[in-house]
Amino acid sequence: MSVEANAPAAVIVLAAGAGTRMKSAKPKILHEIGGKSMVGHAIAAARGIDPERLVAVVRHERDRVVEHLLQIEPDLTIADQDDVPGTGRAVQQGLEALPEDIEGTIVVTYGDVPLLTGEQLGELVAAHDADANAVTVLTARLGDPTGYGRIVRDDDGSVAGIVEHKDATDAQRGIDEVNSGIYAFDAAVLRSALAQVTTDNAQGEMYLTDVLSIARGDGGRVAAVVTGDPWQVEGANDRVQLAALGKEMNRRTCEKWMRSGVTIVDPDSTWIDVDVALSSDVTLKPGTQLHGSTAVGTDAVIGPDTTLTNVQVGQGATVKRSDATDSTIGQGASVGPFAYLRPKTDLGESGKIGAFYETKNAKIGKGSKLSHLGYSGDSVIGEYTNIGCGNITANYDGEKKHQTVIGSHVRTASNTVFVAPVSVGDGAYTGAGAIVRKDVPAGALALSVAPQRNSEGWTQAKRPGSESAAAAGAAPGAPVADNS
Ligand code: UD1
Ligand code: MG
């Protein structure tokens, strides 16, 4: 559901926590699902409600986190949290990084809640605005609410406050409505309530949750929006939860594409990053993984067992049991089975990179084919050229890489080796096993292999008594071995 909401004055993303349960040298919020860091998803959801300002509060692994954040969001305001612990302190320091007189709605989210969407935030802000609330908290009803802050409601159903699990009575622990940690606040209420928050609780932290009861005590209206989709408020604290969230995100991504006209034969074995773009009538076969900025044109068939990372696939192309990165596959082209396209492969319209071919920095023109068993690197190939089986560009002299340039309508025979730098003109041919060290003019046939010499009777003379010698002796017209 999408709800029109007023753009909030700011979103503050809390990202200062350590995330020790990940047991990782990498900060928790930099762990990825769906091709993006968790905090990257948080920033994308925040961007979805178009805030005037976006703030991230950091502390743990500060420099590494900030570098990542500024890469994805150069306009981000960074707020450093000091050594006073707690979500309340984090938000207070986020506020300090904003103009002192900021007014309107301040939204708070977490850097480790990756399935939250801009639409869900929009609904929260819309409800907050519609009722002119002081605070609106996003909540969920969970089968197992252990560990979460519980939403305490009055007899009339209104939100009285939030009690943390560690501070809760047994009766309060029985409440199944939990605090997601995602809120919309009136800026002035937030500022004045935070000034009254103490660290007098079980964890000795400044609890942001205390703002609700303080605001209510000051006469403000405090309300909750209960999400019907608890995945949206679920955080990842360890790698088991990370995998579960990643799987659910992928399920949602696959469903979205199927609903918009993509055939996914087996969504359980198909992985699609959130920034991938697919056209209608694309078919994805089992075992397909599409990563990064990969985009696939209409009627293309990908898979089975194919991984594409930042690859542009043209309309009607097929890619089967192959791996490609940072490459382009033209309209109607065919790749695989078992092809390996390394960065900067540019396969032209109706071209082919066939079985057991590896390419790298290779520009292959329209209709040209590299069908079987070879390597093409640092190469430029014209149109409608046929590269024979087992051809290799020897592009590396041990120190530098060199280019091979092959024209259009060229026919190269099996096992041709191009010793770069070298060029082959339009319409040229090579002979089987040619080692092309010198440029080949247009229309020439390049032969480099020494003439063949047959040493008659060699096997029987040199391998007497062997099965080969016996076979040779039995062959029609075979010379009689001289074993005397
Ligand atoms: C918090 C809530 C709890 C809620 C739960 C939802 C409080 C007091 N409690 O609990 O009601 O059910 O989230 O997941 O707010 N962070 C900082 N600085 C800090 C502490 C935390 O930036 O000093 C950030 C963390 O990086 C994280 C988020 O705030 O993104 C939540 O921190 P966490 O420690 O997980 O909060 P909980 O105690 O689980
Ligand atoms: Mg938590």
Write up this protein.
The protein is of the alpha/beta class and 484 residues long. The chain folds into two domains: 10-233, Spore Coat Polysaccharide Biosynthesis Protein SpsA, Chain A (Alpha-Beta Complex); 253-446, UDP N-Acetylglucosamine Acyltransferase, domain 1, CATH 2.160.10.10. 20% of the residues lie in helices and 30% in strands. The chain contains ten helices and 35 strands. The chain has a 19-stranded parallel beta sheet that branches. A seven-stranded mixed beta sheet has the order 5-4-1-6-10-7-11, with helices on both faces. A three-stranded parallel beta sheet has the order 28-31-34, with no helix packed on it. β2 (32-33) and β3 form a beta hairpin. α6 crosses α7. The model has no long low-confidence stretch (mean pLDDT 96). The protein binds uridine-diphosphate-N-acetylglucosamine (UD1) and magnesium ion. Uridine-diphosphate-N-acetylglucosamine (UD1) binds next to β1, α3 and β10.
The largest pleated sheet is described as: 19 strands, parallel
What is the mean pLDDT?
A: 96
Helix content: 10-25%
Extended strand count: 35
CATH level 1 name of the largest domain: Alpha Beta
Characteristic terms for this protein:
peptidoglycan synthesis, EC 2.3.1.157, 484 residues, seven-stranded mixed β-sheet, 35 strands, binds magnesium ion, binds uridine-diphosphate-N-acetylglucosamine, 19-stranded parallel β-sheet, UDP N-Acetylglucosamine Acyltransferase, domain 1, 20% helix, alpha/beta, 10 helices, Spore Coat Polysaccharide Biosynthesis Protein SpsA, Chain A, cell wall biogenesis/degradation, Bifunctional protein GlmU, 2 domains, single chain
